[in-house]
Amino acid sequence: MTMGGRLFRFWGWLKVLRHDAVILYYAWKHPLTPNYIKGLLVALLAYLVSPLDILPDYLPAVGIADDAALISAAVLYLPRLLPSRVVADCKRQSQKWSRRLPYIFGLLLILGAVWMVVVVIIFRKLLE
């Protein structure tokens, strides 16, 4: 497979991941979502913000790999457990976000870049 084909497949996978994450967001607020799915979402968030990890986050590249794998697996698997009525309602609600998400992700990217610049400046000042 060519490099372009792999990149195209990767972007398609990211699009599915984003779509399912938005569905999970709306499913969290939906009254017909089963409690066990909400419990799994709470457990996922608790694991992500917890200082205890399977692989510590301070390990370069490897530390974040378990978090990324867990998030992607949960986001791809949990929407398939939702009842069809909940999925249909959530898809309908997520249509308005489909136009806004690129701007939100762009803003988050800019904020992340600014944060990194501030961190680099602070470290340079500390090392002087």
Q: What does this entry look like structurally?
A:
This protein has 128 residues and is mainly alpha-helical. It has one domain. The protein contains four helices and no strands. The protein has helices at residues 3-29, 35-49, 62-77, 84-127. Helix 1 (3-29) crosses helix 4. The longest helix has 44 residues, at 84-127. The chain is globular and about 60 Å long. The N and C termini lie far apart (49 Å). The model has no long low-confidence stretch (mean pLDDT 84).
Distance N terminus to C terminus?
Answer: 49 Å
Stretches where pLDDT is under 50 for at least 5 consecutive residues are: none
Taken together, the total number of domains comes to 1
Bin the strand percentage: under 5%
Helix count from the secondary structure assignment: 4
Biggest sheet statistics: none
- Overall 3D form: globular
The whole-number mean of residue pLDDT values reads: 84
**Structural class label:** mainly alpha
Helix content: over 70%
Order of helices and strands: HHHH
The radius of gyration is 18 Å
Write a brief caption for the model:
This protein has 4 helices and no strands. The protein has helices at 3-29, 35-49, 62-77, 84-127. α1 packs across α4.
Keywords:
128 residues, mainly alpha, 4 helices, 80% helix
